[in-house]
Structure formats: structure tokens, C-alpha cells
Specification:
The structure is a homodimer of 347-residue chains.
Chain A: H1 7-23, H2 29-34, H3 42-55, E1 58-59, E2 68-69, H4 71-89, H5 103-118, E3 121-125, E4 134-143, E5 146-153, E6 158-164, H6 171-185, H7 195-205, H8 209-223, E7 232-235, H9 249-261, H10 263-274, E8 281-285, E9 297-305, E10 311-319, H11 324-344
Antiparallel strand pairs in A: 1-2, 3-7, 3-10, 4-5, 5-6, 8-9, 9-10
Helix pairs in contact in A: 1-4, 5-11, 7-8
Chain B binds a DNA duplex (30 and 30 nucleotides) through helix 3.
DNA sequence: GTTAGCACTCATTTCGTTAGAGTGCTAACA
DNA sequence: TGTTAGCACTCTAACGAAATGAGTGCTAAC
């Protein structure tokens, strides 16, 4: 029974899905019969539809209603039927991203653009900089009892933190500390700078160990960003209201909360990062989604890179009947666009 | 006709408002008649209600429905009736804010807490640091063609930016620039560091004017944050779904969008900042709101300070029938709590 | 001034009916 | 054997009439 569908069945399935994508209503045999390409009577369509139902590609909400695609149906569409068409469509709207210095702004804008272009909800995660190497550390005195630690990574991400001291620290000590930190840490991958490493440095610092310990701890904290701190921008969440199948109160509440809280979105990002095998774009349909809340949606994600192992995730969340072609195309162009922007200068 | 209401009318109005706050349904004379405190028959109540309707404190959605408070009614409640009760209620839930170093985290958490405590939507703006003074600037070389500018303000807010150079810059020049910047700018209020000032500095720099100009511009940009950049955290937007009068699709969409876009929330913050006269907490009922989108809501805002003229705004947005006492109390305690945290150490 | 009583209004609910979309099956046709 | 026309059947959505009931306003009596 898991044999490949014959051509006609595929064409009918495709017609059903396309129609359902537009209308959001169950589609009946007569509608498909009038569908341009195929000249088959509704009765024949009915027979085929009956088969497709048995095979699990479409379902009937109730007797005497039309059919709607099942997850399995969408899956086939995304894997096979859609690709056939891909070359035909093309013609992408151009994504005009302002060239601005601030990565943050670019990303916010990208999310917004994507939302406007697709009419779905979008998210984009700020790249994590694990894997990147440390380029430069500098401690500077700001006032008597405060120094500021500035950490620059190879990919030009900057972190900083004010360190409050118990006792004053003379300029010479600060200079020494700077030297110590830079000679020992520069060029090291961020994740190698762990507690053990810091402990060894503390020993080397020797004399001033008291104050130095404070400073080193602070530096370590500065370098290591909390997992929790994963930043995510979202846009177009209210687009979800456009789709009746998602906009009843309880579903909408759950979804919008997910977008506001962002914690669940972070799971999407993690899922994406751990999935190394991939060409770049991943489609989750319904239950396939790594996020429980989105089991009535489809989620399409892409990763973008900006060198040195910094990867971010873009996600589009919409109804299962989302326009997969358009979404995938948009993601592809956005990926290219982001590469162009971030390939040159960062932040 | 604008005479003060007699005591009984006030008590009845208060009873109507309190009841409506709980139920969200128009309240009838019989309901009020059974209301504990007052022993008056429903017929009498009807007469009084008729008067209150004429005076504009309550309205009738349609003949043969109960009454609901008008904006004017709520206003009276907030200004007079509520205060009477305030002392009775008190007993605030304690707001437990984790003591963390990151201002950002504290604020996010505060918004969330407030949302959970009140069941309304909340926002909190990251304090702008206009008015603060410059404490320290440091340029450091990061690589051959890059230097990083770190700017620290008196309130310990740190900004930084990578500056890409056209030509190499020797250590001595960087040292000189550091000196130049610090001697000229330290202690100056941020807003005084404008283009004119920068132009003068450029002249002083003399020889290397080419490169120096780039650097100075970058520093200026670093210091001056866009008005647009006002950061706002929100929480509990989906709480708005709890109130039927706000959760029909079009209203909900508009409101949730407002919270996502944040631009409109920024108007709230601005309104708040320009309003100097105030004791701290402001209640906008319905049309009084500075934000058009929220004309069906009530908005309660408070400002919190963290020294050096840095002020942020907290806002609670809910239905007109919000529990004003509780909201105001919560805001008051949160203000105190934020003062406690930020009074000592920042960011 | 307060209250009981009553007629009246109007939104909401209920329930039966209808209309229509769509199916499944059978029988005929190529 | 695959395709099609035709028809009975199913089930939802839409409609409308009637019942319900909450609430008012007014009048008359206390």
C-alpha cells in the first residue's frame, strides 16, 4: 500500500492541496473536476479521492464534506510535488535590506520583511558565537573602584561588563592583568575558556590573587553567555489570525504566548543547530514540529551563517496549508541577502 | 448638573463598577439591590441608576440591558471612590525580584511578574540615558584595521562599537586620540556631545584629520542612540484574551500588533516623560490614552528612576474595567523594588 | 422618599426546518 | 476495465420563529 502513487493520483493530490491552500475550506470532487489541467469527471475524482483517503494522504472532516490534506499529504507535496513546480515559479520579490551597521537592526528588519512578504509569523535568532575565538580583551579603569572589561571575538562580537572592586587596583596591576589575559586567552575558542582554564590563570596571577580572582571570574562570566540569553526577534505574529484554523481563542493564545515568551522558539533554534546534516532548509509539518505548541502549524526553518561558526536560525510559522514554495523561496533569498551583508562587515 | 453626587449615588456607582469589574457583564438593578452593604430595593436603585445615566456616569448598551460604567464613571472611581478604599486593601503580594546584575534581565522579569500578578498586559521601557554624563571613553586596537570604541557613562551604561579603518593607525595616535577624547568629553552630559562639538574636536586633532574624522564620527554615533532604539520589554499580552470586550479578532489583532511593534508603546513612554508634573502614577481611561489603539483599554503608567536622570516607564494595559487598586498597588511596590535594586549597582 | 407590581423591550437561546455541498454506490457506457 | 452519469443519502450551515428571561420604566400605594 505504500507504493508510489500513480501520476494521476499525484496530480489530483496536488490540485487538492493547492486549492485548499487558497481557500482553507475542504475541497470537493466537483471543484477539482473543474480544475484546469485535468479533464476528469467528478465521479472519477471521487474514486481517486477515496483511494487517497485510504492511503492517508487526505482526510475528511466528516462524511459529506470535502477533503483536506493530511500531514502525510503535505509531506509528499513538500518532498515531491512542490519541487516539480519550483522552477516554474521563481520570480522572487526582492528583499531590500537596508545596509546598516547594527546586526540587531538588520535582523529585526529581516524578520519584519519576511513576515510582510509571506503573511506568516516569523522569528530570527541572533547568532550564538560559540566556536568563535577570542581576539582581544581589555580591562580599563573607569573609576577608583570600577573597571570595565571589554571582550572582542574574532567575529567582532563585543561583550562588556563593569566590574566592581573591593579595593583599589593600581594601574600597573591592570596592565599586568591585561597582558596576562591576552597572552593566555587570545586565539582560544570561546568554549575552551572554562573554569579550569580560569583557575590556572588565577594561580599564575599569584600575588594579587584576591582581586584578580574577582576580575577573572567576571571576565569568564562576560565571555560565557548564558544559554538562556539566546536572543530572538519575532514579527508578524498577528498574521496567524488570518488563518481561521489557528485563530480560535485557545490556539491563538498558546501560539502568541510562545512568540512572546520566546523560550519555545529557542527550542526550534536548538533543534536546528543540532541537525548538522542538512542542506539548510527544513520543513516541519504539524506533529513533526519540535515545539509542541505548534503541532497545528507548519514550521520552516533555515540557518544562516556569518563565518567562524556563528549560526543563526530563521523560522517561519504558519498554518499547515502554508505556501511552501513562497516560504522556501523567501528563505533562500534572505539567506543570500544576509550572507551578502554579514560577509563583509559585522556589527 | 455637574454637582457632586450625593453619597448614596456614589455608593451605588461604586457597587456597579465593582460588580462590572468582576463579571464584565452589564449589571442590573436587582443585582445591586442584593449587594451586601446597601439595603435598598431594586426599584429605588432603578431610579438612582436612571439619574446616573442622565449624568453620564453609566450607560446602557441597549434598552432592557443592565448598565455599564462610562469613561466618566471610571474616572470618578479612580479619582475619588477608589482612594477611599485604598487603605483598606493594601496587603500587596510581594514582588520577588531576583537580584541579578543585568538590568535587562531585571526588567524582563519585572514585566513578567507584573503580568502574572495582575493578569493584564505589561510593558517596561529600558531607561534612556539622556542627561547622564560621559565618564570614560577608550579606543583600543583590535587588529590592524580595526579599533573598538568603548564608552562608559556615569550610570555605568556601556556602549561599544567596532570601527573599521581605511589605513593603519599607530599606537601613538590612538593614545593621543584617547587623551583628546577624554580630556574634552569626560563629564559632559551626553546630549551636549553634538555635531558641533565633534567638529571642534576634529579641528583640534589636526594632522590625522582623515582617519580621526572617521573615528570621531563613529564615537559620536556610539554615544548617541537613536530615538528609535528605545527598548521595551513586554509581557502577558495574551492576558488580553481573558477579557471578552477586548478579544474579538480585530481588536485583539490591533492590540497584539501594538505590543509586538512597540513603536506605539514608545509613544506611551514619550508621553510619560514629557509629563513632568506628576506624582508618578498616571491612569488613562479609554479615549484619554495617548495611543489610539488603546482607546478601548485603560492604561496605567508609572515612571521609575535610576539616578542621573535615567527614567524608564512601566505600563499596564488592560480592559477599562481593570482592577485599578491592584494595578496601582503593584506599580507602587514595583517602583520601590526597582529603586532598591538599581539604587546600588547597575548593569 | 421608598417600594411593589406590572407591562413592555430586546438580546439570547432553542429548536425545527431547509438548502446545499459532497459523498458513495450502482448501472451504463466505451 | 476504466470512466462517467445519476441518484439516494448524509451532514453541516443557515435561517427563522418562538420561547426565555433579564432588565427597565412607570404607576400607584405605602
Amino acid at each position: 500500500m505504500e507504493e508510489a502513487l500513480n501520476d494521476r493520483k499525484k496530480r489530483i493530490l496536488k490540485a487538492i492541496i493547492k486549492t485548499y491552500m487558497e481557500t482553507g475550506e475542504p475541497v470537493g470532487s466537483r471543484t477539482i473536476s473543474k480544475y484546469t489541467d485535468l479533464n476528469i469527471s467528478s465521479a472519477t475524482i471521487r474514486n481517486e479521492m477515496s483511494d487517497l483517503t485510504d492511503l492517508g494522504y487526505i482526510v475528511q472532516p466528516h462524511t459529506s464534506a470535502g477533503r483536506i490534506p493530511s500531514d502525510k499529504g503535505y509531506r509528499l507535496y513538500v518532498d515531491e510535488l512542490m519541487k516539480e513546480k519550483e522552477s516554474e515559479v521563481a520570480e522572487l520579490r526582492e528583499l531590500v535590506l537596508e545596509k546598516t551597521d547594527k546586526m540587531e537592526k538588520v535582523l529585526k528588519q529581516a524578520a519584519k520583511l519576511l513576515a510582510v512578504n509571506t503573511n506568516y509569523a516569523t522569528m530570527i535568532s541572533v547568532p550564538q558565537y560559540s566556536g568563535s575565538r577570542l581576539k582581544f580583551i581589555q580591562l580599563s579603569r573607569v573609576s577608583d573602584l570600577q573597571i570595565v572589561a571589554v571582550v572582542v571575538c574574532e567575529n567582532n562580537v563585543i561583550r562588556n561588563q563593569i566590574i566592581n572592586l573591593e579595593d583599589e587596583m593600581d594601574d600597573e596591576t591592570i596592565l599586568k592583568l591585561n597582558l596576562l589575559l591576552n597572552t593566555n586567552l587570545n586565539g582560544l575558542p570561546i568554549q575552551d575558556i572554562n573554569l579550569g582554564m580560569i583557575a590556572r590563570l588565577k594561580e599564575q596571577a599569584g600575588i594579587h590573587s584576591g582581586v584578580v580572582a574577582t576580575v577573572l571570574d567576571a571576565v569568564a562570566a562576560t565571555i560565557h553567555v548564558d544559554e538562556e540569553d539566546l536572543e530572538i526577534y519575532t514579527s508578524g505574529t498577528t498574521n496567524l489570525f488570518r488563518y481561521p484554523e489557528l485563530s480560535d481563542k485557545s490556539k491563538a493564545t498558546e501560539l502568541i504566548s510562545a512568540f512572546e515568551e520566546k523560550r519555545q522558539l529557542a527550542d526550534l533554534v536548538k533543534e536546528r543547530l543540532s541537525d548538522t546534516s542538512n542542506t539548510g532548509i527544513q520543513v516541519y509539518i504539524g506533529d513533526e514540529s519540535p515545539v509542541e505548541t505548534m503541532k497545528d502549524c507548519s514550521v520552516v526553518t533555515a540557518t544562516y551563517e556569518l563565518g567562524e561558526g556563528m549560526t543563526g536560525t530563521i523560522g517561519i510559522i504558519g498554518p499547515k496549508r502554508m505556501d511552501y514554495e513562497n516560504v522556501v523561496d523567501n528563505l533562500k533569498t534572505l539567506k543570500v541577502e544576509l550572507d551578502k551583508i554579514f560577509g563583509k562587515k559585522l556589527e
